[in-house]
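In this section we walk through a basic example: taking a raw amino acid sequence and producing a predicted 3D structure, encoded as C-alpha cells. The instruction is simple. Fold the sequence below.
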Amino acid sequence: MTTHTIAILGGSGFVGSRLCARLARDGHTIRVLTRHRDRHRDLLVLPTVEVMEGNPHDPAVLDGFVAGCDVVINLVGILNERQHDGSGFERAHVELPGKIIAACRAHGIRRLLHMSALGADADHGASHYQRSKGRGENLVLAADGLDVTTFRPSVIFGPGDSFLRRFAGLLRITPLMFPLACPTARFQTVYVGDVVECYARAIDDAHTYGHSYSLCGPRVYTFLELVRYTARVAGTPRLILPLPDWASRMQAEIFEWLPGKPFSRDNYLSTRHDNVCPEPFPEVFGITPTPLESIAPYYLGGAGERRRYERLRGRD
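The resulting C-alpha cell sequence is shown next.
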C-alpha cells in the first residue's frame, strides 16, 4: 500500500478525528489545521498526525498547510451560520473549496476528496445549506487538473455525534412532553465508521475520480421515529408531541434568534426534502452499511438496552 502525506481540513471534527485515526493506522502522515490546537489532545497523541494552528481561510496559512502534501481532504461544513442571509454558508462551503483548489494547483497536488451532503443542489436546494453545498461540490468536481471524489452522506451517527446525542440531552432536561418540529422528515442515517472507511479506500482508487457518492445506512426513518428511539435507548421516556408544519415553522422562526441556533429557518427548509439515498450503498467500496441499532445503544446511555443487546449477542 502506498503511504501519503495528507492534509485534512476539518480534521479535528466528528468525522475528521476518526478519519485521522483510521489513516494513521495505514501509516499515512497526516496534517490537521485547526484554530485551537490545544483542544485536540486526542489527535496530538497519534504518532503520524501533526496538528497545526491557523485560519484555513487565510491563503498564506492554507498555502503553508498543504505544501509538501500529495492528498488533500476537505471535511469543513457548518449546519448553521451566525448570520441570517446565507453568507456564512457561502464562505464555508463555496469560498473555502475555491481557496483549496487554488492551493492544490499551486503545489501540484492532484488528489482531492471533498465532503458534500445528501440533498446538495446548487440550483434547486430549499435552503442556503443545500444550495451552498451544491455550489461547492460543483466547483471541486469541475476543477481542471485535479482528481476529485466527493461524498454525500445523510445524517451521520456514532459516538460523539451532534444528532442523536443532542436529542438525548434535550430529552433529559425536558419534563414529560417534548415538542418535535418536522416529525415526518425522513432520514437514512449512516454510521461514521462507514463514512470514514469510504474515504480511506477511495484515496488510491482511480475508479472513484470524478465521481460523487451518496452514503446512507440500510434503513429509512422519520424524524419522529429517530427521536422516539433515542428516548427509549437513552432511558428517558417522554411523550413526543409531533408539531404540525405551521408550528414547526414558528418554532424555527423563534429558535433562529436563540444562542447557538438550536433550530433555524434554514434547518426547517432543509427538512422539506427527504434525506434519503437514491441508490444502494456504493459497491465500489465493498462495505455493508452498519445499522443504527447495532451502534446507538452503546453511546446513548441506555444501560438496560445495552444489556439486552449484550444478551442477544451472547446467543451467537
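Looking at the output, two observations stand out. The longest strand covers residues 147-153. Residues 87-106 form the longest helix (20 residues). In the next section we compare this with other chains.
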